[in-house]
Amino acid sequence: MAANGKGGRRSAGEALEQTVEHGPARRRWARRSRRRLLVAAQTAVLAGASAQIVAFDLQPPGVALTLFLVLLSLYALLGTQLNLASRWVVGLRLDERQREDRERARSVGYRTTTVLLFGLMMLAVVLWSGRPDLAVPMNALAALTFLLGGVHTGLPAAVLAWRLPDETRDDE
């Protein structure tokens, strides 16, 4: 734990708030346009990682796995930055407006995921109706599962980051 400047120690919550609210990430992601670029980058990396799963059999095993792990690590890094940019951090004290914004983004994100899952379920029913011999490659199922997991976990923070207005600087 770090010292709080008063001779004492900061609690974990105070350290978290200091990092999120006053750290370099706050300034880096204060502008909406930069947060939107971050959302686009994370979306592109998620799509690339999903495509890499589909293409696993087309590459040498070591190359395929290495590329996937690099993309997965980049996705996690971008996701962490997105969580900081949107203040989607567990344990962070939020005011009433921030809590309402977060709840609205969570609702939109999870409803969107529900609609996607329902649509895929309906597509599967239509495709397999009367065609029990229809085969789906495991790579495609794995990629779809990975993609849906990424959308489900990342969409609420992405919606919030996308919608938040530019922050004003403290010295303005």
* Helix content bin: over 70%
- Sheet having the most strands: none
Order of helical and strand elements:
HHHHHH
Distance between the termini: 32 Å
Task: Kindly name the structural category.
Answer: mainly alpha
Mass-distribution shape: globular
Rg (CA only): 20 Å
What does this structure look like?
This protein has one domain. The protein is built from six helices and no strands. The chain has helices at 12-22, 24-28, 32-54, 61-86, 96-128, 138-163. Helix 3 (32-54) packs antiparallel against helix 4 (61-86). The longest helix is centred in the middle third of the chain and has 33 residues, at 96-128. The mean pLDDT is 87. Keywords: Membrane, Transmembrane, Transmembrane helix. The chain crosses the membrane at residues 37-56, 62-78, 108-128, 140-162. Residues 1-28 are annotated as: Disordered.
Outline the fold blueprint.
Blueprint: H1 12-22, H2 24-28, H3 32-54, H4 61-86, H5 96-128, H6 138-163
Helix pairs in contact: 3-4, 3-6, 4-6, 5-6
Keywords: Membrane, Transmembrane, Transmembrane helix
Transmembrane segments: 37-56, 62-78, 108-128, 140-162
Region (Disordered): 1-28
Concise overview:
The protein has 172 residues and is an all-alpha fold. It has helices at 12-22, 24-28, 32-54, 61-86, 96-128, 138-163.
